[in-house]
Amino acid sequence: MPTCQTKFHGTLSYEPEQVLHIPGGLFGFPQETQFLLLELPSARPMAFLQSVRSSDLCFISLPAQVIQREYRLSLKEQDLKTLGYSAETPPAMGRDVLCLALLTIGERRPSTANLLAPVVIDIAKHRGMQVIMDAPYSHQYPIPASELSHSADQ
Amino acid sequence: MLISKRKEGETLLIGEDIELRIISVRRNKVILGIIAPRDVKITAKKLNEVEMANTMAAANFVNIDQFLHPAPGEAERVLFLLEEKNSKNESERPIRNTED
């Protein structure tokens, strides 16, 4: 079983089927196409996107709907197509796809979430892509500290 | 910011080497053509902002204990999310494991 050195979770062994594929990479990180999607039970619903090739690269994220209850996917036609959906048959958040907003953890300043460009993950196919939404969401949406150091009873 | 009103087909000259042409104007979409030297980077501002946000998100130097407070021995319980979701088939708040 291959192993992966992770940024926050030590060394993990994993099965190839557990790898999340992001064929286009992420914006600014075009080479990063393979990730492990991890969580710690006590930190739910936080999700970690650990790069398989770069041990030092691990994004911390929250499902967009946790940050904003009314969050709706607003995808461009091209992106819908790439994901295998269409305007008539859009993906259902939570059922077909997982939408993760990448977090920037602030030390002195508030932490922020990128709601403008979520990482949309097709749960069944273990494939994902980062999209820029066709709606005026913020790439730096402030998150209250309480949202981050939350307890398991959310 | 310089405000300039132009019609379809007209061109703006920016500096010595850059041409900005209004190719077509529709109700909510404008098509622009840009001629510029190869070393001049042209990118949508949104894209630039998103790349920056990703770069900052990649630089999170957090001590995981700071905000996660994992219970002793919990590091071994790191879960591979997709696997869980596939088998549990939840429809809302997918990361929450309702059996916890």
Short description:
The complex is a heterodimer of chains A (about 150) and B (about 100). With about 150 residues, chain A is mainly β.
Count the helices of chain A. How many? 3
For the record, give the distance between the C-alpha atoms at the N and C termini of chain B, rounded to a whole number: 56 Å
Strand content bin of chain A: 25-35%
Q: Would you tell me the structural class of the helices and strands of chain B?
A: alpha+beta
The averaged pLDDT of chain B comes out at 77
How many strands appear in the DSSP assignment of chain A? 11
* Share of helical residues of chain B: 25-40%
Rg of chain A from C-alpha positions?
Answer: 15 Å
User: How many helices of chain B in DSSP terms?
Assistant: 3
Global mean pLDDT of chain A: 89
Shape of chain A: globular
Provide a descriptive summary of the structure in words.
The complex is a heterodimer of chains A (about 150) and B (about 100). By secondary structure, chain A is mainly beta. Helices cover about 10% and strands about 30% of the residues of chain A. Chain A is globular. Chain B is an alpha+beta fold and about 100 residues long. Chain B has three helices and four strands. A three-stranded antiparallel sheet of chain B has the order 1-2-3, with no helix packed on it. In chain B, strand 1 and strand 2 form a beta hairpin. At the A-B interface, strand 4, strand 6 and strand 7 of A face helix 1, helix 2, strand 4 and helix 3 of B.
List keywords for this structure.
heterodimer; A: mainly beta; 9-stranded antiparallel beta sheet; two-stranded antiparallel sheet; 31% strand; B: 100 residues; alpha+beta; 3-stranded antiparallel beta sheet; 4 strands; 27% helix; 20% strand; elongated; disordered C terminus
Layout of helices and strands:
The complex is a heterodimer of chains A (154) and B (100).
Chain A (H helix, E strand, L loop, with lengths): L2 E3 L5 E3 L5 E3 L12 E6 L7 E5 L6 E6 H4 L9 H7 L13 E8 L6 E3 L5 E4 L4 E4 L10 E3 L1 H4 L6
Antiparallel strand pairs in A: 1-2, 3-4, 4-5, 5-6, 6-7, 7-8, 7-9, 8-11, 9-10
Chain B lengths: L10 E4 L3 E8 L4 E6 L9 H14 L5 H5 L10 E2 H8 L12
Antiparallel strand pairs in B: 1-2, 2-3
